[in-house]
Amino acid sequence: MILEGYLNQLKEKGKIHIVDKPISKKLEIAAVLNKMQPEPVLFKNVKESDFHVVGNLFCTKQQIASYFDIGVQDIIPTLTEAIERRSPPQEVENAACQEVVESDVDLTRLPILFHNEVDGGPYISSGVVVASHPDYGQNLDFHRAMQIGKDRMVTRVVRGRDFHGFLEEEGELDVAYCIGNTPEVLIAAATSVETGVNELEIANALREMRVTKAKTVDLLIPADCEFVLEGTVYLEEKQDEGPFIDLTETVDVVRQEPVFEVKKITHRKTGIWQALLPGKLEHKLLMGMPREPTVFRKVKERGVDVLDVYITPGGASWLHIALKIDKKHDDDGLRAIEAAFEGHTSGKHVWVYDKDIDIYDEREREWAMATRFQADEDLLVKDREPGSSLDPSAEPDTKMTTKVGFDCTKSLETKGKSFAKAKFPDVDLKKFMG
Ligand SMILES: Cc1cc2nc3c(=O)[nH]c(=O)nc-3n(C[C@H](O)[C@H](O)[C@H](O)COP(=O)(O)O)c2cc1C
Fold first, then answer.
1. For the domain bounded by 287-407, which CATH number is listed?
2. Which of 32, 70, 239, 350 has its Cβ near the most Cβ atoms within 10 Å?
3. Among 15, 22, 63, 35, which residue's Cα sits nearest to residue 277?
4. CA 142 to centroid of ligand 1, rounded, Å
5. Distance 55 CA to ligand 1 centre (A)
6. Residues ≥6 apart with Cβ < 8 Å to 415
7. Nearest atom in ligand 1 to 186's CA
8. Which residues are marked as active site?
9. What is the rounded CA–CA span in Å between residue 421 and residue 319?
10. Which pLDDT does position 75 carry in this prediction?
């Protein structure tokens, strides 16, 4: 789906703010988006560019569910099913993303945001990257890119990603950075599946989409994205990348990262640039949510009746996992914890709750821990395990960490007081108030 089509739907529903006042891509747009989260904002008068900028489109599970016209509780089954029944998207010509094929490359004409004073430069943070390997075929994921010249960027490649493996083997990779995508593409790019799976097929299973041949590199790209930056990433040509705010909202260190030489820019005539605030709700949701289906599947495989999984924003949508289960056996909680750590190896703390607990309500989660958890029975500690490179408290070089699970489910047999929360009768306030 073309992003502009979705924005028009939001406009009709009055669910997007339009800013017509002149605004700068340097700090101002990011500051407004930060204050307005999770409400979408469209900037129509960017001082340094002819293109409009939009942000905060997909900050909450509710916004994602509304886009797919499903309930929040249906997101995990929908993602799980899309991974299992993926299919190749239709290939088209005269694609929207190639309505304009720029003759020269000038990144300064694009509204690449300077998000924060701590940053090392202007950054593309919403770029979905298409790359290919002779044996494994196409891969789709995200890599932030810092602008260092009119046609050059430096891009962050976390070790262990498929893209990293491809680049190590090939020495250089032809790529297409696609900016301005709707959730089927965003979520598929953020989903980690076996190497060799083309995530564009997952996107197509989430919602039918189209691909087209890139202009200068041998890749099939999302035909309806807003902008495409085609070029090559070089393993051996490195530059300083960063500082930049990462998922934990802390400032990531400067590293030597590969250079991305941009050789061709194409876009929709009225291309809309998609902003994505680093470390904020949209970044968190896109990082954490696609990991929930893999946790769900692992816990299910352990024979525990799992109902929902939430990788919570308070844990940087990466380090904390909340599970809702329908408890049938006394050790269901501890088994679910073990399985959750397998389903998301970067997970650091796991909480398990009963089906009567709203895992999206942090007060309810705390209440369950206060009234249903005993550390001598319900605590699981996994000492010195490989942790996440994002966790500033993990051991600096080795990333070793200690993982902890909390079984906050009530025992199947109630010995003393009931665990249930007493309810007050419902009442129609209008009968008495005002
Ligand atoms: C908004 C966003 C930004 C990301 N930025 C980067 C990045 O700069 N570098 C990186 O290596 N991974 C980044 N990631 C993570 C990967 O793109 C993501 O985990 C992907 O699923 C990995 O795919 P793979 O399993 O095929 O390697 C980002 C993810 C999201 C959602």
1. 3.40.1670.10
2. 350
3. 35
4. 4
5. 19
6. none
7. 31
8. 246
9. 29
10. 93
Cα 286 to middle of ligand 1, angstroms: 9
Of the options 2.40.50.90, 2.30.110.10, 3.40.50.2300, 3.40.50.10540, the CATH number for the domain spanning 88-270: 2.30.110.10
- Ligand 1 atom nearest the C-alpha of 142 is 17
253 secondary structure, DSSP code:
P
Q: Indicate if ligand 1 lies below 6 Å from the C-beta of 284.
A: no
Q: Does the C-beta of 255 come closer than 6 Å to ligand 1?
A: no
Question: Quick check: CB of 382 below 6 Å from ligand 1?
Answer: no
pLDDT at position 154 over 90: yes
Average pLDDT over residues 207-233: 98
Nearest alpha-carbon partner for 172 in 237, 111, 122: 237
Percent of the chain with pLDDT over 90: 91
Nearest residue (CA) to ligand 1, atom 15? 142
Q: What is the DSSP string of 94-151?
A: S-GGGSEE-SS--GGGS---B--TTSSS-EE-S-EEEEEETTTEEEEEE--EEE-SSS
Contact 318/247 with Cβ under 8 angstroms?
yes
CA 9 – CA 45 distance, rounded (Å): 21
Lookup result for tokens 């408290």: 393
Q: Is 157 in the pocket of ligand 1 (CB under 6 A)?
A: yes
Which atom of ligand 1 is nearest the CA belonging to 199?
26
pLDDT tens-digit map of 237-291: 999 999 999 999 999 999 999 999 999 999 999 999 999 999 999 999 999 999 9
Residue carrying the six token digits 């990531």: 252
Residue ranges per structural domain of the chain: 88-270, 287-407
